[in-house]
Amino acid sequence: MKKRVADLVSRMSLEEKAGQMTQAERGALTAQGDIAAYDLGSLLSGGGSTPTPNTPEAWAKMIDAFQLRAQATRFQIPLIYGVDAVHGHNNLTGATIMPHNIGIGASRDPGIARRTGAVTAAEVRATGIPWDFAPCLCVTRDERWGRSYESFGEDPALVKSMETVIQGLQGARDGKDLKDDDKVLATAKHFVGDGGTAYGSSTTGTYTIDQGVTKVTRQELEAVQLAPYQTAVDRGIGSVMPSYSSLDILGDGQGAVKMHARADMINGVLKDRMGFDGFVISDWKAIDQIPGDYASDVRTSINAGLDMIMVPYEYKDFRTTLIDEVKAGRVSQKRVDDAVSRILTQKFKLGLFEKPYADTSGASRIGSSAHRAVAREAAAESQVLLKNAGGVLPLKKSQKVYVAGSNADDLGNQTGGWTITWQGSSGKHTDGTTILDGMRKAAGSGGAVTYSKDASAPTSGYDVGVVVVGETPYAEGVGDVGNGNDLELTAADKAAVDKVCGAMKCAVLIVSGRPQLIGDRLGDIDALVASWLPGTEGDGVADVLYGKRAFTGQLPVTWPKSEAQLPINVGDTTYDPQFPYGWGLTTLTKVPAGGAATLKALAVAAAVAERTGSGKAGRALVGKARLLVQQKAGSGPGITAAVAGPFADADHLLLTGKYGAAVAKLTEAYRAA
Questions:
Q1: What's the burial of 1, exposed, middle or buried (CB within 10 Å: 0-12/13-18/19+)?
Q2: How far is CA 173 from CA 178, 231, 237, 271, 307, in A?
Q3: Mean pLDDT, residues 159-184 taken together
Q4: Per-residue pLDDT tens digits for 404-417
């Protein structure tokens, strides 16, 4: 393959090479003939950029028509087409929509991360698309960030454990599966520090935190934000996308520099130190944010190690500018050859030279029951039970249940942003099952489930109430807190909670991309569930509500008491949240007896598991210890700082394989409870 790439590059003109480094939005093409005229290497569909009708057949037909144009070029170099499929093939109506990453992180299950990736890859490739701008390996450090839900969690150890998704998307680490009809090239994004930007540091429009400045010491950068990228490189990730944000490394004398301009990080760390051999793709119009004129933007980004630019509109200008910069000697021919070699290598691995056109043999499996079963399992595993006074959950089929709240019967709200369109929307916009639908099915013919969205229907005569509240969809900085959003429930949701929980035993489900502030109502709520954004399969939520499956999810982020506490993260010196990182009660599971004595025995066994490298045993032992702590802490007046700190630390230690130390921390939390 190296020979094929080198041979092809040696025969290409500068104009052809510049074309390979250009990516245009499909809607920006002034004429399809431009693909050949400008030797374009790549096209993309931005969020919501879809063919009409929005069907698998129409996607494949559209991309094949583009690909046909590329065949008219001198060397017939195929296009590589990319989309943001960040939780399933989310631009396509009828696709299987997974829980957003925050929910996958809550599952603590690397297996389900891999399987959701595999389903996504199969559905994306079956529509003729070989490249996915996912996964987001962001480590979210402030819930005010509008992209919080795109992160697996606030702990780099948790993010690293979920990178099995890369194998789900790409297959084998050496790239030998990329040519298969159910695999895609994955993209680790956004390199680096996208989740660490400071509140108030964004200069993009009315954004408050997204695309802002991440101010860190080199040690923090390595430990928190960079950690997941070495794992991605080791797993064979094919492409990497830098972040819109700026990086300010304290003491390096550079100040805040846009990531798309940081040669020290892209060339120096990612390519040279980590050994990344795939290609680097810019974010949407991101080089335009680099200070200076357009020629300077192009030169700076390409010299920093960008291999392909998501222009996405002015593709002719970009290509001409790049050619001019090379001719003027400001971008070296060697740099261009390296970029083109990296791009062509992935096109060869994907088998695009041999099979440029869509292989739609897997199209019948898009949105199939087998694929939805995986999404349903992921949704069930993502549910985090935060409180369960008096064992309100699981519900019984015989109970009369009163359901209320804005998010009980809204597919759009439960799938969130990046669904059908960039921002997502409320209401029914694709095929799926709402939480209410799922509950009605789970209750069966004998069950009685009554629904009143605003809780205006009479509340007498019910055994239990379920109030499903939370957020409406948003994406990126549009969802930043302070940009028209906060972390409070709406007045209507608060009223529904107050009315139902005042009239009967109640469970409150929060369907949202991030924690919501509910401290003032916690005393009146019997059971509280963090449902995150569970995707199209509301049946998964119903499965745990009705006890078909146990609640097993754990918080992937710290749940704050107030906005004033933000940012708050595991390992902070002052740490007094509503619920700590890693918290998650279980149902259908016996908590071990014996209290402190049992913990002592678990500590001994966990230390042995750690020494012998027995991960499965170690995780099970820490899990038992966790249940003991939660039982004791959960029955008291609340979780104190003395409990929360060591409890959260224990979950981080567990993820790093330090099982003995994790049980020691849990023992500390137990004594404090």
A1: exposed
A2: 10, 11, 8, 17, 21
A3: 98
A4: 999 999 999 999 99
Q: Any bridge partners for residue 249, and if so which?
A: 216
Rounded CA-CA distance 321/30 in Å is 19
CB 256 within 8 A of CB 213: yes
Whether 35 shows a pLDDT value over 90: the answer reads yes
pLDDT greater than 70 at residue 636: no
Query: CA-to-CA distance for 402 and 294, rounded, in angstroms?
Result: 59
What would the pLDDT profile of 595-611 be if each residue is shown by its tens digit?
999 999 999 999 999 99
Does the pLDDT of residue 185 top 70, yes or no?
A: yes
Q: Are 297 and 317 in contact (CB under 8 A)?
A: no
Q: What is the mean pLDDT of residues 144-167?
A: 99
Give the dihedral sign, CA 52/58/63/65.
Answer: negative
pLDDT in tens, 109-148: 999 999 999 999 999 999 999 999 999 999 999 999 999 9
Amino acid at 349: K
Tally of residues, the chain: 673
CB 85 within 8 A of CB 78: no
476 is catalytic: yes
Hey, what are 379's tokens? 């949704």
* Interval 71-86 mean pLDDT: 98
In this prediction, residues 229-258 reach a mean pLDDT of: 98
Check residue 601 and give its pLDDT: 98
Please give the Cα distance from 221 to 224 (Å, whole number): 6
**Which position among 16, 123, 132, 283 bears the catalytic label?**
283
Residue 466 bridge partners (DSSP): 403, 507
Q: What residue type is assigned to position 510 of the chain?
A: I
Query: Cis before residue 99, ω within 30 degrees of 0?
Result: no
283 is catalytic: yes
> Which tokens go with 201?
């540091």
Question: Which of 331, 401, 420, 333 has the alpha carbon at shortest distance from 93?
Answer: 420
pLDDT of 547: 98
Q: Say how far apart CA 135 and CA 6 lie, in whole Å.
A: 30
Closest CA to 372 of 24, 12, 652, 99: 99
Mean pLDDT across 525-533: 98
What is the helix, strand, coil percentage profile of the chain, to 5?
Answer: 45, 10, 45
- Residue 284: CB atoms within 10 Å: 19
| Distance, CA of 46 to CA of 152 (rounded, Å) | 22
- As a whole number, the mean pLDDT across the chain is 98
Domains, the chain, with CATH or none: 2-353 (3.20.20.300), 369-557 (3.40.50.1700), 560-673 (no CATH)
Residue 216, classed as helix, strand or coil, is strand
Three-state DSSP state, 289:
helix
Residue 42 in contact with residue 308, Cβ under 8 Å?
yes
488: CB partners within 8 A, 6+ apart: 516, 517
Residue 447's pLDDT band, with cuts at 50, 70 and 90, is: confident
Residue 22 pLDDT > 90: yes
Residue 540 contacts residue 380 (beta carbons within 8 Å): yes
For residue 661, give both structure tokens. Answer: 């130390």
Which residue is catalytic, options 142, 476, 539, 610?
476
| Residues 375, 198: Cα–Cα separation, whole Å | 33
Instruction: Give the span between the Cα atoms of 175 and 121, in whole angstroms.
Output: 14
